[in-house]
Amino acid sequence: MAIEIGNLPAFDQTPVVGIGLAVPFISSATSGSDSLFSINYTTSEQIKSNMINYFLSGRGERVFNPNFGSRVKEFLFIQDEEQSLNTLKKYLEDEIKLIFPVVKLKEIKISSSNNSFPILEVQIFYSVFTSLNEFIELNIPL
Q: What CATH number does the domain located at 4-141 have?
């Protein structure tokens, strides 16, 4: 386990050491970097990538880790839209508290658009350690 110095994790003391892969997995070889993928160098960046990966992975998608992933896609087929959005918001709050305990959740905004291509839009506003305002926007096609 890392030793925390004040509000800054020990991993963030030397930001030249990569601690994980960035999401989306875009090759940084085209930008002149030596690495094949983009690397996260701070804990808050890696937590953001982990949250995106977790919520966009369905439960049971990983072969050797069937409990990894969220059940967000299951909420897409509930008939009562108002109730399903409130249930989804509560589910996201509970999952973040359980899976990502270092995240201080500020607000979750959920909306659905029924344009020519229906999309469920989820915005999660949070803070981690010394970062004040971080957010994730997930666009899930219906």
A: 3.10.450.40
